[in-house]
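Changelog note: in this version the structure field was regenerated for every chain. One regenerated record is shown below for reference.
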Amino acid sequence: MAQIKNKILFPNVNRNPEDEFPKQRVPEYLISEVEKLIQLHGDLELFVDWNTGASVTASQLIEDAYKIASQFKRRACHPGDVISCLIHSDVNYFSFLLATWMSGCVLSSLQHSFSQELLIKLIRSSHSRLLLCDVESAERCRAIKTECPELEEVFVLGHFAGCTPFDRLLDDEAFPRDELKRSEPYDPDETLSMVFSSGTTGEPKGVLLTQQNIYSYLLTARPKANRPGMRTLFVPRIGNVMGLVFGLRDVLIYSKTYLMSIYKDEWLFDAIEQIKPERALLYLPHILAITKHPKSETSNLSSIEAVFTAGMSISKNLQRKLCLKLPSLKTFFMFYGMTEFAIGTMRPFHDYEENDYRLEELRKNHKLKPDSVGHLCPMNLMKVVDENTGEILGPNQKGELCFKGPSLFKGYWNNPEATAVIVKDGWIHTGDIGYYDDDGDVFYVQRSKELIKYLGHHVIPSQLEAILKSHPAVEDAAVVGIKSEDYGELPMAYAMKKPGHDKLDARRLVNFLHDRVHDESLLRGGLVFIDEIPRNVMGKIVRQQLRDRAELEFQKASSLC
């Protein structure tokens, strides 16, 4: 049972970071753990590219990391230097990551969805010295180099004119380990990585992660037991914070992890049938594919016993659909957090190796509420505050979710002002509206910035979106607020029709919604059909893009109310 003291929520299991975290640098700890696993279980494959068949064994991971770190030393890379990365998923990523950390450098994980302008801006502002890319992004990166004088070299996973092949980093023998060992004492606040916020409400910001942050992720998410050779399908790209967490976690449990360097929905089913993974890391778009794609009717998905997801709250209805598609599913792990505080809550809170229940039995036996995002993770604290007054609220009162703990990021890169807005007195203000109940279950309701405020009423877009998507002719929907001098904000909807339903008109769909909502939730800003709802790689709606479009279209749109 969770503890509540002075309206602060404490975890079921409270542990002290000082007692839990190793007193050595993260790369040294990871290498020593892998060497122990090799001694116990032999040299197994750690990462396999399902698309190409390329693989990396445990000993190769370590050997390659030392070779790459030696090349960084030859290029006079110093602690604090930034090395950037723009790739999807590749078996060599974690060797490159370890080498960067061994050198005391900071790995900046960029995203393919960033515009060329933004990439140039981020590489310039971080003073990146080296850049690793894949063939897909090589032409962009070669052009970026001409715009960024401090960027000395671009490495490519493969071959592309004007870029150095990644294999060159592995050509020469590594320096002796003693020569690569750093002399400075261990510092838990040393920056290891820079990942980027999702950018759903504006331009992405560089989120700095420290040794302490990485340890908090690894030791929170690590099961008690190793299962050498257990097969894991790792579908998302590896450059974001959850990719980092789960990739390193799989190293520590000695899993055989299959990556998909190229992803298509139909290939997901082929991969599952061929690999027969016991576990799968999936984001919302992949879960939707499993529940909706025609191949789900004919594919054998029975090997999957555990699913891990993060980034979005998965509805009770979607969980049920997933359970029906995966007949052997025993555990559905959902992590709630944000890039700046990666693991705030987790459900279910136990080791899946010890669990032998189906989803409904799991909820019954572990007293999980279907709409909950779980319980607090060890070492975290949580409070709920009133957005307007800052008053700390008690159980079952909705307000902004705030967290404190070792997962808290160091700050935004070169942006102390933005850091001060989100972190106050050691508490991170998530911008999420939610609450906790008397049992300590945490519930996410809505992003605060997504809330539409009409005449003082709070209109929740996700509720309107769910109603619109329940119409048999609607594939997807998004609701945003349009600024109004008189009313505050007016709800406006974008909807995507299902194939074969071209005759659906906006007025009929608006009436469908209006029959099911209160007056303050009426679409006073109108409804517009759109070819596709913009979503980021995590499946989140890019609302800022829709808000910008809505402001331009509002004057043209006729009122439908």
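Spot check on this record: The longest helix spans residues 58-74. The longest strand covers residues 474-484.
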